[in-house]
Structures are given as structure tokens and as C-alpha cells.
């Protein structure tokens, strides 16, 4: 599963490794867009589904924390590597690293899904394609029906949307806000991002496994949302240049929300629906990321201008914090379904997947 999606990324970097001319640059972005559509969201969902197959329920939150923590570590090391390497070698090294991933997966990763026997070997390509779409439509339909009957999954989707609406709104305007209010430069931005990046790695890899047995996934979710609310308020009401540095510590706690949600969703559905529902939550998260800047950008510009209704330059960040308050309220009232529903279990009891192309 993984190797095919990872292979989609190789041609994009290979284009710029071949040439950095204007024409190749446009080709790179077209290929990158196609690659992102095919592989960007599915990679994380497939990773989470695979972990759910090989890790016990009680250990999934810690395992998901390792995934998100290592992802943060890879981003940190990738940025560091790009600063150290000469420009001519950056894309060549990235191709080498991307090539290593599918090769390693092919050689060492064990498939967890039992594939159904191939049928209709002599069917026409048109009939085969039609059959594939019918099967996938039925699979998605059944998955959505299961999600609609699960109170946990519906609440988690709402919590994810509200929290991401607030945090992505803050992230989209924060640097512009700090530059306008406190005259931050790129070095100060880099310092804050470095603090958050390093802190996030340790909080997800080391802290999450320690506190999860004590407070559970719901407790981690509430703590992270409380931290995100404080993060938005301190930034929005910042009265001195050192306040954004202090508020960065809250973002280190907020990142625990993602593995907590992964674990809650994983426990609330059966093994063969893991990818579907993780993908649905990812789609909800992406929708919020798309919508929030449409409101936050003009609102921030208004309160930073001389036409502001009242003097509160970070009013937009305070408004974004309210979405986290709503998300915290629903998280507090969340009732966890640690077992999949009966219809979910019956529909997927055999844990068998038919090949897309028979």
C-alpha cells in the first residue's frame, strides 16, 4: 500500500533535480499538485490503519504519538538539511531519501490485509473499471453509514472541524500579526518555529506515552484544546514581544490533540474501516483549513488598520480562540465508543479486501 503512494512523489523532485529552469519549475508544480491529490492525505491514513492492525488498542495513542512526533522530527531535520546542503544537491538527496522509502517498505513491511481471490480474469477493461467503481462506492457508502450511527465519530468530526478552524486561522495570520505589532523579523519567526518544532517532538514521542495511561485519550484531547485556547488568547492579547515566545509553549501541548483524535477514531471503528474514517477526519480538517483564512485574513487586516472599530490588534486571534472553547466543550461531553458498532463489525468481520483490478 505505502510504496505505491510514496512512488508518486519521486517524479516531482526528479524534475527540479534535472533542471531548475522556468519551464521545469512549472512542470514541477503540476506534478506536485497531482502527487498531493493522490498521496498526501492517503499516506497518513494508510499509516494509521496499518498501525491499528499491528498495535493493541491500549498502545495506539502512544504509537500514533510516535508517528506524529517522528513526522515533526523529519520536518525539522529536512529543514536543517536544506540549510546545510548546497542548492545543487538538495533535490538529488531528496530523491535518494524518497527512493529508499518504498524499497524499505517492499522488503521489510508485512502486509496485514488478506486479499480476496482474484475473479473475472477474462473480463473486459470497461467491465473491470465499472466493477471497481461499484465496489468502492459501496464501500464508501457503508463506511459513511457506520459513521452516521456512531456518536463518537460524529462528535470527533465536529471537534476536529472547530479546533482546526481556530488553529489554522491563527496560523495563517500569526506571522503577519507579529510583524505588524511587534516588528518581528525572520530570525525571531525562526526561533519561535524552532522552539515549537523541538518541543513538539519531545511532547509527542516522550510525554504522550507517559500521560496517556493516566488521563486517557479524552483527557489528552481536553488538555490540548485548553492549551490551544490559551495559545490563541495570549497571542491575541500580547502586550510585549516576549509573550509570543511564552505562548509557543502552549502549542507544544496542543500538538497532542492529533494523536489523541487518531486513537479515539481508531478505537471507535473496526479494523477494515480504519483508513476510511481517518481519511474522513482528514477531509474535515482540510475543509476547516481552507475556510478559516477566508475570514481571518480580512478580519486581521481590519483590526491592524486605522479603521479598526476598537483598539485590539489581535481581536481576530481572540475570535479564533472561541472556536477552541466550543471544541473543548464538546470534548468534555464526549462519550467514547471503544468498540465498533455491530453493523461495522458484521460488514467487515472477515477483514478481506478484493483487489482493485481483477
Summarize the structure.
This protein has 358 residues and is mainly alpha-helical.
Give the topology.
Elements: H1 2-7, H2 10-18, H3 22-54, H4 60-84, H5 87-108, E1 114-115, H6 125-148, H7 151-182, H8 186-236, H9 243-254, H10 257-267, H11 274-304, H12 315-332, H13 342-347, E2 352-353
Parallel strand pairs: 1-2
Helix pairs in contact: 2-3, 2-5, 3-4, 3-11, 4-8, 4-10, 7-8, 7-11, 7-12, 8-9, 8-10, 8-12, 11-12
Give your account of this protein's structure.
This protein is mainly alpha-helical and 358 residues long. The protein is 78% helix and 1% strand. It has 13 helices and 2 strands; from the N terminus they run H-H-H-H-H-E-H-H-H-H-H-H-H-H-E. It has helices at 2-7, 10-18, 22-54, 60-84, 87-108, 125-148, 151-182, 186-236, 243-254, 257-267, 274-304, 315-332, 342-347; strands spanning 114-115, 352-353. It has a two-stranded parallel sheet with strand order 1-2. The longest helix is centred in the middle third of the chain and has 51 residues, at 186-236. The model is unreliable at 1-8 and 345-358 (pLDDT under 50).
Task: Give the averaged pLDDT, no decimals.
Answer: 77
Percent range for β-strand residues: under 5%
> What sequence of helices (H) and strands (E) makes up the elements?
HHHHHEHHHHHHHHE
Q: Which residues form runs of ≥5 with pLDDT under 50? A: 1-8, 345-358
Give the helix/strand class.
mainly alpha
The largest sheet has its strands arranged as 1-2
Overall, the morphology is globular
Radius of gyration: 22 Å
Secondary structure: number of strands: 2
Number of helices: 13
Helix percentage: over 70%
CA distance, first residue to last residue: 17 Å
Main sheet, how many strands, which sense, barrel?
2 strands, parallel
Amino acid at each position: 500500500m505505502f510504496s505505491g503512494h510514496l512512488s508518486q512523489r519521486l517524479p516531482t523532485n526528479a524534475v527540479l533535480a534535472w533542471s531548475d529552469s522556468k519551464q521545469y519549475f512549472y512542470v514541477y508544480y503540476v506534478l506536485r499538485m497531482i502527487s498531493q491529490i493522490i498521496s498526501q492525505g492517503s499516506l497518513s491514513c494508510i499509516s494509521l490503519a496499518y498501525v491499528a492492525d499491528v498495535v493493541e488498542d491500549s498502545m495506539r495513542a502512544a504509537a500514533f504519538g510516535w508517528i506524529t512526533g517522528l513526522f515533526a522530527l523529519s520536518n525539522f531535520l529536512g529543514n536543517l538539511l536544506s540549510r546545510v546542503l548546497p542548492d545543487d544537491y538538495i533535490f538529488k538527496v531528496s530523491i535518494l531519501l524518497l527512493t529508499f522509502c518504498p524499497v524499505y517498505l517492499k522488503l521489510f513491511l508485512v502486509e496485514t490485509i488478506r486479499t480476496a481471490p482474484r475473479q473475472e480474469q477474462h473480463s473486459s477493461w470497461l467491465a473491470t473499471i465499472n466493477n471497481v467503481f461499484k465496489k468502492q462506492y459501496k464501500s464508501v457508502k457503508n463506511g459513511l453509514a457506520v459513521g452516521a450511527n456512531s456518536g463518537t465519530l460524529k462528535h470527533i468530526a465536529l471537534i476536529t472541524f472547530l479546533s482546526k478552524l481556530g488553529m489554522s486561522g491563527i496560523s495563517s495570520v500569526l506571522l503577519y500579526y507579529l510583524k505588524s505589532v511587534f516588528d518581528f523579523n525572520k530570525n525571531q519567526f525562526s526561533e519561535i518555529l524552532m522552539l515549537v518544532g523541538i518541543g513538539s517532538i519531545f511532547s509527542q514521542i516522550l510525554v504522550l506515552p507517559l500521560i496517556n495511561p493516566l488521563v486517557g485519550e479524552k483527557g489528552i484531547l481536553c488538555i490540548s484544546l485548553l492549551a490551544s485556547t490559551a495559545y490563541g488568547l495570549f497571542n491575541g492579547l500580547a502586550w510585549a514581544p516576549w509573550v509570543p515566545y511564552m505562548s509557543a509553549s502552549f502549542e507544544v501541548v496542543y500538538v497532542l490533540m492529533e494523536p489523541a483524535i487518531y486513537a479515539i477514531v481508531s478505537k471507535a471503528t473496526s479494523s477494515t474501516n480504519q483508513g476510511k474514517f481517518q481519511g474522513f477526519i482528514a477531509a474535515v480538517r482540510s475543509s476547516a483549513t481552507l475556510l478559516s483564512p477566508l475570514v481571518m485574513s480580512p478580519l486581521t487586516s481590519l483590526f491592524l488598520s486605522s479603521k479598526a472599530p476598537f483598539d485590539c490588534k489581535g481581536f481576530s486571534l481572540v475570535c479564533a480562540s472561541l472556536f477552541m472553547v466550543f471544541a473543548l466543550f464538546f470534548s468534555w461531553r464526549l462519550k467514547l465508543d471503544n468498540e465498533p458498532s455491530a453493523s461495522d463489525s458484521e460488514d467487515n468481520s472477515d477483514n478481506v479486501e478484493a483487489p482493485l483490478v481483477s
